[in-house]
Design brief:
The chain is an alpha+beta fold and 442 residues long. Among the domains are: 152 residues, no CATH class; 151 residues, Heat Shock Protein 90, CATH 3.30.565.10. The chain is built from 11 helices and 11 strands. The strands form 3 sheets. Strands 6-8-9-11-10 form a 5-stranded mixed beta sheet. The chain has a 4-stranded antiparallel beta sheet with strand order 1-4-3-2. The chain has a two-stranded antiparallel sheet with strand order 5-7. The radius of gyration is 43 Å and the shape is rod-shaped. 23% of the residues are buried. This is histidine kinase.
Length: 442
Amino acid sequence: MFFMWLKRYMPRGIYGRAALILLLPVVILQLVVTVIFAQRNYEGVTTQMTTTVLREVALVLDVVADAPSPDDIAPMVTERLAPLMMRATPVPLDEVPRQNSLSWYDYSGRVMIKLFRTRLSGFLSLDLSDPDLVYLFADTDRGPIKISFDRRRISAANPHQLFVYTFTFGFLMTLISFVYLRNQLRPIKRLARAAEAFGRGRHIPYTPAGAVEVRAAGSAFVDMRARIERHIEQRTLMLSGVSHDLRTPLTRMRLSLSMMDDEDTGPLLQDVDDMQRMLDEFLDFSKGTAEGEFEKLDPHVLLETAVAEAQRAGRNVTLLPAEGTGSGTVRLRKVAILRAVDNLISNAVRYGSKAEVSVMLTDKTMRIRVEDDGPGIPEARRHEAVRPFSRLDSARSQNQGGGGVGLGLAIATDIARAHGGVLRLGVSERLGGLRADIVIAR
């Protein structure tokens, strides 16, 4: 449970995690060294120096006890204990501080107070507010007295130097390590950008670099990308060649049938048209998502163009008002997106009586939605519906609108994935039929 809670606050990026891995041991080491130094060295030195001062204070108290009157305390201490460089003066009881006075960061002062309280009889309080002098208040037979002496006699000189050196050199070493670490992480980020671009259908130059393991991963990615591109190219050439070669005999058959006056040629012409339409779908599928380059387009204008073309083709389709609070352009392949939307509209009007198209744009995503009033697709078979050459006879009749070869949703899925997005199928709440959403991150 603790690790699950801690995971939410961990950095997401590789730079942040690498910096955490680098800084956390350094910070912990500095804290451990600081604590050990404060406890062993700082506290030990302060204890030794305070013990020495306690012996000198005992001598001062002996002189105070021998003084005939309170007015003789200061001259006698100065005369008899001049080498100690301490001053002792009587003070009224109401001028004695009730509490010890020291700064919040004065660690040695806390050690001194503890030692004076436990080892000095008659100790009242200690005033450490002056950085140069220590004022000790003690109770004697002559009344309260104030003893002052140099703070350097009871505290180590320049105690902060170790802390300054520790944090300064720790910061410098962390900075140097981060520079080297950044050079090691740069090839990984370049590999991630190349892989992300390839997943979105873009090819950016990439050369393996960095450590041996990173070079190996980069070389494997380059080989994999080359194999996939060759496979796509071979598939495109094969389907394009077959489809193109079949167009010529189909054209001759259509011309021959159109020149015949026999009434039985109508069904044959319909079969030829169906074959021509299937070939067009094969060509669209073979072209994939490689047509055109990415460019910044306004999704609202693009959808208006797609719907206008569908309406000119005689399809019952309506463009709904724009949704979302986003604005601006999105990097898209214009021809590919138009083809995907056209396929979704064709499926919608083929299996239903009308279709509605809408676009929602936010700061992070773009969603193109096509809905129809047809029979829809069962949830259990939606994954199968987006596969190439898949035809769901029980859900959406092939006999409506001339049928197809099961490539409409597959083409839309490939185009969405090539843009780094996804095609989602659901149930239309407005029309009751199929709802197809193309969601692309901006």
